[in-house]
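Chain and conformation:
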Amino acid sequence: TLEDLADFDFTVRWIPGNTNVIADALSRVNESDANSGESVSSDMQVDPIGSQLTE
């Protein structure tokens, strides 16, 4: 809420969308992050201890 934000010292500035690359990057899911669950799962199958955890 606005009351919670009142405790902080900050300035709000409007930045045009095409130059606001930080917000754009934060709002998008990294492709490697989207597939990381599959990667971890396949890696665990190869690992002797990991394969026991997935059984």
